[in-house]
From TrEMBL:
The keyword ATP-binding applies. GO terms for molecular function: ATP binding. PROSITE patterns: ABC_TRANSPORTER_1, ABC_TRANSPORTER_2. This is ABC transporter ATP-binding protein. It comes from Drancourtella massiliensis. It is found in: Cell membrane. CDD domains: ABC_NikE_OppD_transporters.
Length: 337
């Protein structure tokens, strides 16, 4: 299976008055064609920053991708792209949808026209072709009455419909990679499910690789092929969806799993009952980033950040509990009985 994205040793900092916030600390991963990879973690864990870095969407000089970082997309070095190259790259190769469609949609322009502009720019269509294609795209994302809706302004549509338009816009250029950052968080549960169904359908139809960024492990259950759990700018555990849901070995993942609402009880209040807060990303971190909140914390955890241990080819965990000399801990699953 062909690799279309490789990220190695990604470090991203934000330069603030309080100091340098090291938001992403040595993240690496790869993405294969047509695969769905989820970045999961609490807000501030670096998942969105990682996603935006891939498209070089972070604004210097406040945000800085450190020069040792490598981002290779389809054999091309994204770190070395010029402004003009990046402009073509975003759309042709990779596009992104956000939680709030209004951040990508232009409120003063008809939605059809916005899709058409992208088609004319990236796919060299003339106006007539682009309009037909825009209508076809709106139909593809299940917008009823697409022939009329194409002339709507964003404010004339519901939140769910705007999210569909944004997906249509992101897919208009047939990108190889789609990054979806909390695409359903602002929507109610029924619409959320519809949008996830739509993304799944489109992924199968177009073989687009997807990076799904979310705080909600529940959302990825039936969607992601692989999951990486992020915390304090690092990946703490990664694996196939099955490995993360059924064979997870990291205490932080256990906390996330225990906060996934059970069927029939979808209240968001129960999410993240975890006590305490993530570490300050300005201070140096010479311990496990989860140490201050971990009920299994041992002496070594406070002295050294654990290395990544491979459980299988796909399943990797950064936790001292994986050390052969560590005490055996009853797993999350044993506790749940
Ligand atoms: Fe907890 Fe230690 Fe594992 Fe960190 S390394 S998650 S503190 S047991
Ligand atoms: Mg975010």
């Amino acid at each position: 299976n062909e690799k279309i994205l490789e990220v190695e040793n990604l470090h991203v900092s934000f330069h603030t008055y309080a100091g340098e916030v090291k938001a992403v600390r040595g993240v690496d991963f790869e993405l294969k064609r047509g695969e769905t990879l989820a970045f999961v973690g609490e807000s501030g864990c670096g998942k969105s920053v990682t996603a935006k870095s891939i498209m070089r969407l972070l604004k210097p000089p406040v945000a800085e991708i450190k020069p040792e970082s490598r981002i290779i997309c389809n054999g091309r070095d994204v770190m070395k792209m010029t402004g003009k190259e990046l402009y073509a790259f975003r759309g042709d190769e990779i596009s992104m949808i956000f939680q709030d469609p209004m951040t990508s949609l232009n409120p003063t322009m008809k939605v059809g026209k916005q899709i058409m502009e992208s088609l004319m720019l990236h796919r060299n269509m003339n106006k007539k072709e682009a309009r037909e294609e825009a209508v076809r795209m709106l139909k593809m994302v299940n917008i009823p009455g697409a022939e009329k809706r194409v002339d709507n302004y964003p404010h004339e549509m519901s939140g769910g419909m705007r999210q569909r338009v944004m997906i249509a816009m992101a897919l208009a250029c047939n990108p190889k990679i789609l990054i979806a950052d909390e695409p359903t968080t602002a929507l109610d549960v029924t619409i959320q499910a519809q949008i996830m169904d739509l993304m799944r359908e489109l992924k199968e139809k177009m073989n687009t690789a997807i990076i799904l960024v979310t705080h909600d492990l529940g959302v990825v259950a039936n969607f992601a092929d692989r999951i990486q759990v992020m915390y304090a700018g690092q990946i703490l555990e990664r694996g196939t969806a099955k490995e993360i849901f059924y064979e997870s070995r990291h205490p932080y993942t256990w906390a996330l799993l225990s906060s996934v609402p059970k069927k029939g009880n979808e209240s968001k209040e129960e999410l993240y009952a975890l006590k305490g807060t993530p570490p300050d990303l300005i201070l140096p971190l010479n311990e496990c980033p989860f140490a201050s909140r971990c009920e299994y914390c041992m002496g070594i955890c406070k002295e050294q950040n654990p290395m990544e241990t491979s459980i299988t080819d796909t399943h990797k965990v950064s936790c001292w509990l994986m050390h052969p000399k560590a005490p055996k801990v009853k797993s999350f699953y044993d506790r749940e009985g």
